[in-house]
Structure prediction request, 162 residues.
Amino acid sequence: MTTTNPQQTLASQFDDRKVLDLLDRLEAARKVLEQTDDIEDAIKKMNNLEFYLRRFGTIKELAAHLAFIEKKMYILKEYLTVNEAADYLNLSSSLIYKLTSKHELPIYKPNGKTIFIHRDDLNRWIAKNKILSQDEIEEYAMTQMSILGKGRMNPIKNQKRQ
Prediction:
């Protein structure tokens, strides 16, 4: 019969605890490795946030910029409210109301009250009073002179006919 030394028993228990502790740490490491994708995503998001903070300075400035972008998203809409149309044209809402009351801008009232304006109608209104550039004026003048030149009769030909 073998006798067990109390020190050996204590040592084996200590070794068992070390092994169990090591297994627990390995399990924790395995869980961390399984979350690598989540960690990589978090790192990418942190890098993106860092980029924007460098660009805008503070989170408050970044939030203000995002609010500005959100406000300007109306540009993607096909029909705009009076306030959106005013913002789009950089005019006052009261001027938009005047333009609509004078029928210079076509409007839509689907519920009989709220005014909507088609974005293309705003673009046509902008383009209707075009002021030509110097190059366009010169090109127009050359075209008109060419047309007038073709319409004149050649004086040499006229002399031969007489």
